[in-house]
Structure formats: C-alpha cells, structure tokens
Amino acid sequence: MKTKHLTLKDTVFLLSPSMFPQEKHKATIKKSIKVLNRLGLKVVKPVMRQYFYMGETVEQRLKQFNDFLEGNCKLATPIVGGKSCIQLIEKLPYNKIKESRKLFLGL
After folding, report:
1. Are 48 and 78 contacting, i.e. CB atoms less than 8 angstroms apart?
2. DSSP 69
3. How far apart are CA 21 and CA 36, in angstroms?
C-alpha cells in the first residue's frame, strides 16, 4: 500500500493507544513537540483521561484512532507505548486505515 508523504505544515496526531502518559514522560513529550514544530509540522494532542494505568477505556482509545483517521492529520504516533494496546488489535478499522493512506509510527 502506498502512503502519503509529509510536507511542511502537515499535522501530526499524538495518540495514546496504551498507557496514560506519566509525569516522567512529560519532558520528552514537550521536547518531541518542539522538534516536530521546528520541522514545520503542527501537532494535535487529543484530550486524555487516565483509566487505571491506561490512556482511556478501549472504546475511547479507539475513538482517538478514528478521530485521527477522519481528521486532517497525516501522521499518527503514540506518545508512550505499553502492552494494553493489544486490546485494540481486533477492533481497529483496517479497511478505513488502508483507504486513508495515512502514516503510522510505532514504538
């Protein structure tokens, strides 16, 4: 599958498919946003609420993913990783992902 490429002023979506960002992650996240901005990219951070150790419930994390697919962002990258992202694997909209031709990064 051929994907789109990033250009200046494109938007990057920071999502949390697994763990909720902890205090120890905040400095790295801020630094990453600054680097992306210096590269000429805009950054969108979804509103997240902690659900146990995760960044929201399964349904809310899937909604974050859908918001990315339906929005104008061209790239999605996780803020932090974690083992609970496995909860999303069977529920992801794979046809929608293929049609979107959007870029995804992983950890």
Report:
1. no
2. H
3. 18
24-53: per-residue pLDDT in tens?
A: 999 999 999 999 999 999 999 888 889 998
The Cα 38–Cα 52 span in angstroms is 34
Half-sphere exposure of 79 (CA within 13 A, CB side): 31
pLDDT in tens, 79-100: 888 889 999 999 999 999 999 9
**Those residues with Cβ within 8 angstroms of residue 36's Cβ, 6 or more apart along the chain or in another chain:** 12, 43
Residue 101, sorted as left (phi over 0), alpha (psi -120 to 50) or beta, turns out to be left
Question: How many angstroms separate the CA atoms of 18 and 87, rounded?
Answer: 9
Strands (E), 16-99: 42-44, 50-51, 54-55, 75-78
Q: How far is CA 59 from the centre of its chain?
A: 15
C-alpha span between 20 and 65 (Å, rounded): 15
